[in-house]
Write a structure and sequence with these properties.
Number of domains: 2
Distance between the termini: 27 Å
Radius of gyration: 20 Å
CATH superfamily of the largest domain: ATPase, nucleotide binding domain
Low-confidence stretches: none
Number of helices: 10
Structural class: alpha/beta
CATH architecture of the largest domain: 2-Layer Sandwich
Order of helices and strands: EEEHHEHEHEEEHHHHEHEH
Shape: globular
Largest sheet: 5 strands, mixed
């Protein structure tokens, strides 16, 4: 089964053709990073306009690279939640038009379910159930993946997501957007024990809090500046990265042990972080657990992961009509039928 998938939830306009949820025939991404870099973050209005300008060309390119015509795909999928509402609406409305014109089933996909499904592309042998650590710019979750379309959150951030904290710390250190990759590069040359940073506590064992850690770094930088000192950006980046990754790893492994999972998965943009990948791998090996992480090319937003998840949604009958709407916020546990 071939699915044409479209992703426009944030600042990447992407399209892909995916076969049977595991094989990528094409994947095209038009990134807006250079446009938003000058603002230090994504400007929603600009992102939406860029999607509108690029979505036709990106979609046609994906079809061309897959040597497939629109009439030859079996279904058309789109990210319908969560994300920037204007950006989502561009993709949803465009895809509804394609679905109507081509008389193809329309499959709405949850963006975070797509991140989980990136592992089905990278690791064809992977099957639920498993425990997944979802870490991205807007989400930090520990999720039980009971089946391909059945999810249960057992831990989540109480405030900032890990990726959001990385971006804000990068900004205060004077590093470019997007912050995560530049924190990673700076940290490689710093000392992770240069500064002892707090590990915020919450009253539940698997929930996260990164606001206090982010604020501690901001206060540290301001104190050094007020004393006329030079900001040791590499050491601060290394200390922050170590603390954040240690929090994520410790809670994830604890949850896996408590819930009895031996198969672990990591998903989302922050999974591209070199230290997080290293720490998760080491801890999983120590505990006799099997860890699956997608290659860096599949960690960020892309349409291939949406096409992968769409295959399983379609098999479950989770399709939509032309009344489909986008949702800026939606739990990974819910299906789009809950919104109609």
């Amino acid at each position: 089964m071939r699915i044409l998938a479209i992703e426009s939830s944030c600042d990447e306009t992407a399209a892909a053709v995916v076969e049977d949820g595991r094989r990528v025939l094409s994947s095209v991404i038009n990134s807006q990073i250079e446009i938003h870099k000058q603002f230090g973050g994504v400007v929603p209005e600009i992102a939406s306009r860029q999607h509108a300008e690029n979505i036709i060309a990106v979609t046609q390119s994906a079809l061309d690279k897959a040597e497939t015509k629109l009439g030859e795909v079996d279904a058309i999928a789109v990210t319908a939640a969560p994300g920037l509402i204007g950006a989502l609406l561009v993709g949803v409305n465009f895809t509804k038009g394609l679905s109507l014109a081509a008389s193809k089933p329309l499959v709405p996909v949850h963006h975070i379910r797509g991140h989980v499904a990136s592992n089905y592309i990278a690791h064809p042998e992977l099957k639920p159930p498993f425990l997944c650590l979802v870490v991205s710019g807007g989400h930090s979750h520990i999720v039980e993946v009971k089946d391909y379309t059945s999810f249960k959150i057992i831990g989540r951030t109480r405030d900032d997501a890990a990726g959001e904290a990385f971006d804000k710390v990068a900004r205060v250190l004077g590093l470019p957007y997007p912050g995560g990759v530049h924190i990673d590069k700076a940290a490689a040359n710093g000392k992770p024990d240069a500064f002892k940073l707090p590990k915020p506590r919450v009253d539940t064992p698997y929930d996260f809090s990164f606001s206090g850690l982010k604020t501690a770094v901001i206060n540290l930088v301001h104190n050094i500046e007020q004393k006329g000192g030079e900001i040791p950006a590499e050491d601060i980046a290394a200390s922050f990265r170590f603390t954040a990754c240690d929090i994520l790893t410790a809670k994830f492994i604890l949850a896996a042990k408590e819930y009895g999972y031996k198969t672990l998965v990591c998903a989302g943009g922050v999974c591209a972080n070199a230290l997080l990948r290293e720490m998760l791998t080491e801890r999983a090996e120590e505990e006799g657990m099997e860890l699956f992480i997608p290659p860096i090319s599949l960690c960020g937003d892309n349409a291939a992961m949406i096409g992968a998840q769409a295959f399983f949604e379609y098999k479950e009958g989770n399709t939509a009509g032309l009344d489909l709407n986008a949702a800026a916020g939606m739990s990974i546990e819910k299906s789009f039928s809950d919104l109609l």
